[in-house]
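$ ./design --mode recover --in tokens.txt
reading tokens...
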């Protein structure tokens, strides 16, 4: 693992750990946890409707650092097994567990001890049994291959310094015919170098954003099919600047270059269904 990837991972772990601890004092987080109080930043605000908010503990909502609502778009079915990559305080895992019902299972995967502790507290408060939170990294998913029906994630894959590995791991653990259904921040066109070079901006959901066509190419390279990227929010220059305020990046001069170039999107893809005719590997021919 390169020193750059390791550094990014440690900064993300620290900032998300701090965000989890703030929840206990009634605070929430903006764009990855740079604010000590509740906020209305353009990425994380108003993602869940009143009916969903009523299904989960308040602490799960306060800990939400997402950029979308994958549980509302993934069309989960009763009895399915769902995995949330970077599950944080557990909001999307708990909502998914209710969607798939007692016959289904919802896993949450997170590398941050503080977030895992908060997620387990929220599971207990919600009284939901078909949930399990796992400690680990999204680049090394601790589940066997062909074990998950649906992978969701909420503004986390963009934070990884090794997205190719994340997508390969997602493909590995999905069952044939399984669905990749994540919310993520993506970009359109080139991003100013000073954003890419800022470690803290990774925690602000901006610097790590893949260009949308590159995202498609990476998914296809892993073997995914039926790839689609659906914008859910397109950010103005002011929105983007809101997320990198205080991170020692003077973006005012470049504001005109970033308006409309960052967006939250719902990203869909499907792992092909393997058949006797299409696969003769020992792991897939039965």
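writing sequence...
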């Amino acid at each position: 693992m390169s020193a750059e990837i390791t550094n990014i991972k440690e900064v993300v772990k620290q900032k998300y750990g701090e965000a989890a601890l703030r929840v206990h004092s009634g605070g929430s987080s903006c764009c990855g946890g740079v604010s000590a109080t509740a906020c209305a930043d353009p990425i994380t605000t108003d993602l869940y409707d009143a009916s969903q908010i009523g299904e989960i503990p308040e602490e799960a909502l306060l800990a939400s650092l997402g950029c979308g609502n994958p549980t509302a778009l993934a069309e989960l079915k009763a009895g399915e097994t769902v995995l949330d990559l970077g599950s944080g305080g557990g909001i999307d895992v708990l909502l998914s567990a209710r969607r798939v019902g007692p016959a289904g299972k919802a896993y949450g995967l997170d590398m941050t001890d503080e977030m895992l502790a908060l997620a387990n507290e929220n599971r207990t408060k919600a009284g939901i049994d078909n949930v399990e939170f796992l400690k680990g990294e999204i680049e090394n998913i601790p589940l066997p291959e062909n074990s998950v029906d649906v992978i969701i994630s909420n503004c986390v894959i963009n934070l990884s310094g090794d997205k190719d590995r994340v997508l390969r791991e997602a493909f590995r653990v999905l069952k044939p015919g399984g669905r990749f259904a994540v919310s993520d921040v993506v970009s359109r066109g080139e991003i100013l170098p000073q954003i890419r070079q800022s470690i803290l901006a990774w925690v602000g959901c901006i610097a790590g954003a893949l260009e949308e066509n590159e995202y498609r190419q990476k998914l296809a390279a892993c073997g995914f099919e039926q790839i689609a990227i659906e914008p859910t929010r397109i950010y103005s220059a002011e929105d983007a600047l809101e997320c990198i305020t205080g991170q020692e990046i003077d973006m005012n001069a470049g504001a005109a270059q970033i308006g409309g170039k960052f967006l939250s999107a719902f990203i869909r893809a499907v792992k092909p269904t393997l058949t006797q005719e299409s696969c003769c590997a020992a792991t897939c021919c039965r």
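exit 0
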